[in-house]
Amino acid sequence: MPSLKTLKNKIASIKNTRKITKAMQMVSAAKLRRAQEAAEAARPYAERMNAVMGGLAASVGQSSSAPRLLAGTGSDQVHLLVVMTSERGLCGGFNSTIVRLARAKANALLAAGKTVQILTVGKKGREQLRRDFAANMVGHVDLSDVKRIGYANAQNIARDVLARFAAGECDVVTLFYNRFQSVISQIPTAQQVIPAQYEAGAVSALYDYEPSEEAILADLLPRGVATQIFTALLENGASEQGARMSAMDNATRNAGEMITKYTTIYNRSRQAAITKELIEIISGAEAL
């Protein structure tokens, strides 16, 4: 049985931890509101752009004049996996679910004889993936100094990815991130961005394009890649704050339960010590 002093120190330590986790929960709640609004505001734009691009892509089809970003290189030998995680921990299984999905994809590709390259966005993903895929890591994007994700951050990542594709360093590019659904639910997502994949829509039937669809696609496809990356960053940001809020709420509850448990043990031990002292005093008095 721990001493009364040990129990008292333990209770005080857990109370301090509970204050920290409660504060982090409140901070994440405030950040979540902004991040969720940004992610939800970006969705209609991304969906509309995908619809327009889908219509253009359907018009172009598999013609020889189709841009390489749409038609691909004609090979799928080299895969670039862009894995987006957080810069900090204390967000439950948020990072692990993304890394697990990316690791499964990488292992499946390697087993099929493909070449895998990994570009990480966020420190936590890099730390986990380089344990098994250090030889496959080709780059890292550090966003630790970025207070609020902007389109410029997505453009920088898109330029890097597009430059690698243009140089023939990769054939297929896939994003890995968490899509925000709710505070307690984030969906691990793998999204191929190169070659571009769009669902055919009815947009192309409503307009005549000038210049040609091929020329317009050649200009819009790089922007489409940047838009998809930006949307993924926003979804990931909202998911991270939701996961951290949920994790800190659970930690706060657990700390409260531990405080109750150790307080009960402390009170019982203290009562036992007082009872023992009273018995010793009474026994000494009777002896006299």
Features:
single chain; 288 residues; five-stranded mixed β-sheet; alpha/beta
Write up this protein:
The protein has a 5-stranded mixed sheet with strand order 3-2-1-4-5, with helices on both faces. Helix 1 packs antiparallel against helix 6 (213-287), helix 3 (94-111) runs parallel beside helix 4 (123-133) and helix 5 packs across helix 6. The protein starts with a helix and ends with a helix. It has 288 residues and is an alpha/beta fold. The protein is 63% helix and 14% strand.
Short description:
The protein is α/β, with parallel strands linked by helices and 288 residues long. Helix content is 63%, strand content 14%. α1 packs antiparallel against α6, α3 (94-111) packs parallel to α4 (123-133) and α5 crosses α6 (213-287).
